[in-house]
Design a protein that fits this description.
five-stranded mixed sheet; alpha/beta; 13 helices; Nucleotidyltransferase, domain 5
Length: about 325
């Protein structure tokens, strides 16, 4: 059996897969909050004990750059080492990959009900794919077809640490506001949970002080999203709309960089929560607004991933079949 994991900054998804040749079956899953644990081995031990199943191989998608056989996560103070986990927990094999690499590995195996179509485009079944996921941080990866080998090649990135581009005057003002908070503005400073909170605080500050109708300044991501559904002109809705606009711009850049005629996929926890804004205009307007390439951009399919277990399938697929493989750095 394979124990697969999707290790993020806020939560950890785990799944046990039964194998029959190259066929996988997801037998059991569980979710853990990282704030409740000191490290990944504690979570794995608890899950293994609760399942009572013998797991031979461990495959983890981790939210940070993997160097050799270890990773220090980008947004929480955890270090994960494959050798230590193998010795401590008794696995015959431990595989560590970037979490977006696991997400990319799962793309070819998504079913119709696992995604929402935001832009149908003209899908190329043999075209390159790309994924961008916003959650505690932001990640990006590409999936390149290798027709001769009948497989997909994963190219992972640390695109969330790249500088955030501005797509209009208002974006420049927002970037100036973010820069005033004390650091250069990277993509994930805006396109993340904390980024959405800061966008809300920016729009709240623009509506003036002493206004009793304004929501409290310390709303959580979940509270901002809920309020955005009911208040079309308030700072919560403005923040979510601008988040969607930035996400559309970054996703469009990714489509151009990878010539992703096979589709752009939106993963992570935030995009499904704000699907009411992604389908309404600001996202696709930013995605397609490319001057000479406007027409080409409209041919690129855009999908919202609804199945949060997809990276678990990707992590497991990297173990079993050779249908998806990592590109060598």
């Amino acid at each position: 059996m394979i124990l697969a994991g999707d290790i993020g900054g806020t939560k950890v998804n785990l799944g046990v897969f039964e194998t029959a040749g190259n066929t996988l079956r997801l037998a059991e899953t569980a979710t853990f909050l990282t704030r409740d644990y000191s490290g990944i081995s504690e979570i794995l031990s608890e899950f293994i004990t609760s399942t009572g199943r013998p797991q031979e191989v461990l495959s983890l998608g981790v939210a940070g750059p993997v160097t050799g056989s270890s990773c220090r996560l980008t947004n929480i103070d955890w270090e994960i080492d494959a050798g230590s986990l193998k010795q401590e927990l008794g696995f015959s094999e431990v595989l560590l990959v970037n979490d977006l690499a696991a997400g990319a590995a799962g793309l070819p195996f998504l079913r119709e009900g696992d995604v929402q179509v935001l832009q149908p485009g003209r899908p190329d079944s043999n075209g390159r794919k790309a994924i961008v996921s916003a959650g505690t941080g932001l990640g990006q990866a590409f999936l390149i077809p290798e027709a001769a080998a009948d497989r997909w090649l994963i190219v992972d990135t640390e695109g969330g640490q790249c500088g955030l581009p501005a797509y209009c005057i208002e974006d420049l003002e927002i970037m100036q506001y973010f820069h005033g908070l004390g650091s250069p503005v990277a993509v994930e400073h805006v396109l993340s949970g904390q980024g959405l909170v800061r966008l809300f605080q920016y729009y709240r500050s623009r509506q003036g002080r002493g206004d009793d109708s304004l929501p409290a300044p310390d709303l959580t991501v979940e509270e901002i999203v809920v309020r955005s559904r009911n208040d079309e002109r308030g700072p919560c809705r403005e923040a979510v709309n601008r988040f969607a606009s930035f996400l559309g711009g970054v996703a469009g850049d990714l489509a151009l960089q990878g010539l992703a005629t096979g589709g752009i996929y939106l993963g992570g926890g935030i995009a499904p929560a704000i699907s009411h804004c992604l389908a309404e205009g600001s996202f696709l307007k930013s995605f397609n607004n490319r001057d000479k390439f406007h027409g080409w951009m409209r041919t690129v399919p855009v999908y919202l991933i609804l199945n949060e277990r997809s990276p678990l399938w990707g992590a497991a697929e990297l173990v079993v079949g050779g249908r998806v493989v990592m590109a060598r750095h």
